[in-house]
């Protein structure tokens, strides 16, 4: 309201005084057409903005390549062949399996995550901070390692319900993190007001708290659903067929025949259906409020006699999501002894994994820089369209991206097939949104006035950008690179399909040994992947706390 009062106190345009001069300057800047509001005689950003915008357009168009490839293949194949490949019993079976998996696993993840988030953030649960960290830690374990642990512990674990069990323990942290963060930011005054009119604790939670968690639940559910559609190794272990497993099997048996491409088209359609459902369920309600809310510590609910039963939920969850993998890996390490630590093979796999992770993370971060810059410095319809292209394609499964690049390189650029360039491009396409989100947040915190000051000292626009914004956004770029590197280290399907001959990453070595039922030899690779992922998972947990002011 103070801002409106200040505006009312200003003299009208054309009047005298500093206010009228300020308004006249703003009008001059608006007429100048400078996207950053700079005076035309001092520093016009038209040239660098045009180059940066062009780079963002090229990256966005290139990221649409897998989607355009799927459409092009469908057109080239012809409707009769497409209909014969899509409308057949096998596709119907895969569709039923995939739908059942999503319909069963996602609601269970929602209930489990909301319950754990409420217990760790809103109740006096003993050891709440420890249980909160243990609820995030399963992200450090690749999904196929979860499946490896369960199938070696329970060899008869197969089918739909096995897929639901392992999927829930592997992916529920994607829902827990946003829900817990949303609970930390809620204004307790709203709940106090509801309680003051006579609503009981359950009705307060259902009518006040739960509606405010809708965005977090929808976003987390979308992430879980997309991971379920894209996952390969988890379901191969438990012998449960999904579109992704069928696509990889078809590719390996017929080397990218039309059937694999049409299965990929159906899988892409499923991804877009999930995106549409998330938009519909999320709605357009307003979740923000004017003001900061009540600046007081939240009163945690006393569990009383329910403490022990409530404590069982995080204990059992931690045992299933963390205890089973670590116990299984430890058991196989003990059973294998020193012989499973083949340091030459492990060292080679570790070195190749780190190289691909760092190179792919660097490429993805550089590719994301133009898009992140214009999203903050030059927002508009074009920026929103380009950014949407990156996020939509980022939701495609890695097997679809790999299949597209395989076909393109084989048909058009055969020398690029199974080269370092192709696999790095695939990584950049798959993990570009991770780098983009981190870079965008960092650039938003770098004042544009520093770029202007650098330009006023005689530096060219690009040099001014490099010496100010890019340097200040370096921490965000590093965080984005770390997220991309984590995804690359645990990536399996695209690496198998695109990596140059002789490549053997940690994930590929683990898969090769486990595929031969040599679980003891696979254990060291699983342990190293988990050990490399745990620090980043801890950083994600700490960052979620900082965002809530804790």
Residue share in β-strands: under 5%
Summarize the helix and strand pattern as letters.
Answer: HHHHHHHHHHHHHHHHHHHHHHHHHHH
The counted number of beta strands is 0
**Low-pLDDT residue spans:** 1-48, 290-294
How many helices does DSSP assign? 27
- Average pLDDT taken over every residue: 79
Task: Measure the end-to-end span.
Answer: 29 Å
Largest pleated sheet: none
What general form does the structure show? globular
**Percent helix range:** over 70%
Radius of gyration: 26 Å
Secondary-structure class: mainly alpha
GO biological process, one term: transmembrane transport
InterPro entries: MetI-like (IPR000515), MetI-like_sf (IPR035906)
Membrane topology: Multi-pass membrane protein
Family: Belongs to the binding-protein-dependent transport system permease family.
List keywords for this structure.
mainly alpha; 27 helices; globular
């Amino acid at each position: 309201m103070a801002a409106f009062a200040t505006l009312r106190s200003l003299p009208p345009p054309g009047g005298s005084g500093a206010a009228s001069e300020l308004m006249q300057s703003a009008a001059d800047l608006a007429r100048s057409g400078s996207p950053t509001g700079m005076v035309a005689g001092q520093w016009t950003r038209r040239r660098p903005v045009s180059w940066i915008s062009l780079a963002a357009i090229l990256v966005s168009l290139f990221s649409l390549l897998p989607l355009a490839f799927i459409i092009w293949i469908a057109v080239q194949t012809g409707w009769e062949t497409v209909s014969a490949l899509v409308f057949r019993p096998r596709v119907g079976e895969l569709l039923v399996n995939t739908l059942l998996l999503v319909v069963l696993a996602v609601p269970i993840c929602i209930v489990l995550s909301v319950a754990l988030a409420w217990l760790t953030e809103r109740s006096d649960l003993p050891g709440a901070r420890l249980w909160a960290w243990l609820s995030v830690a399963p992200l450090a374990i690749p999904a196929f390692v979860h499946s490896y642990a369960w199938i070696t512990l329970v060899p008869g674990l197969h089918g739909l319900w096995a897929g639901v069990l392992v999927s829930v323990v592997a992916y529920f942290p994607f829902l827990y993190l946003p829900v817990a963060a949303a609970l930390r930011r809620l204004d307790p005054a709203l709940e106090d007001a509801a309680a003051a009119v006579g609503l009981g604790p359950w009705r307060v939670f259902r009518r006040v708290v739960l509606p405010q968690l809708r965005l977090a639940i929808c976003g987390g559910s979308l992430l879980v659903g997309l991971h379920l559609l894209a996952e390969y190794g988890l379901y191969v272990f438990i012998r449960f067929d999904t579109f992704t497993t069928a696509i990889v099997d078809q590719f390996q048996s017929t080397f990218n025949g039309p059937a694999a491409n049409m299965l990929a088209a159906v899988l892409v359609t499923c991804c877009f259906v999930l995106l549409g459902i998330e938009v519909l369920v999320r709605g357009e309600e307003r979740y923000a409020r004017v003001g900061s809310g009540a600046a007081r510590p939240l009163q945690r609910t006393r569990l009383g006699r329910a403490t022990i039963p409530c404590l069982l939920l995080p204990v059992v969850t931690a045992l299933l999501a963390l205890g089973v993998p670590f116990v299984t890996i430890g058991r196989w390490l003990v059973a294998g002894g020193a012989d499973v630590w083949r340091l030459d093979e492990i060292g080679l796999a570790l070195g190749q994994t780190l190289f691909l992770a760092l190179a792919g993370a660097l490429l993805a971060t550089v590719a994301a820089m133009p898009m992140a810059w214009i999203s903050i410095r030059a927002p508009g319809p074009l920026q929103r369209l380009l950014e949407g292209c990156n996020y939509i394609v980022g939701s495609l499964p890695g097997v679809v991206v790999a299949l597209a690049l395989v076909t393109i390189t084989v048909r058009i650029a055969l020398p690029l097939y199974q080269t370092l360039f192709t696999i790095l491009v695939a990584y950049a396409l798959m993990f570009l949104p991770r780098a983009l989100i981190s870079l965008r947040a960092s650039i938003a915190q770098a004042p544009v006035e520093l770029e202007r000051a650098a330009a006023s000292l005689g530096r060219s626009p690009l040099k001014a950008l490099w010496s100010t914004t890019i340097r200040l956004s370096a921490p965000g770029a590093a965080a984005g690179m770390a997220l991309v590197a984590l995804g690359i280290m645990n990536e399996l399907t695209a690496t198998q399909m695109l990596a140059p001959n002789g490549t053997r990453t940690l994930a590929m070595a683990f898969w090769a040994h486990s595929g031969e039922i040599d679980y003891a030899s696979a254990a060291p690779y699983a342990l190293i992947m988990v050990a490399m992922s745990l620090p980043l998972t801890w950083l994600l947990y700490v960052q979620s706390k900082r965002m809530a002011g804790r």
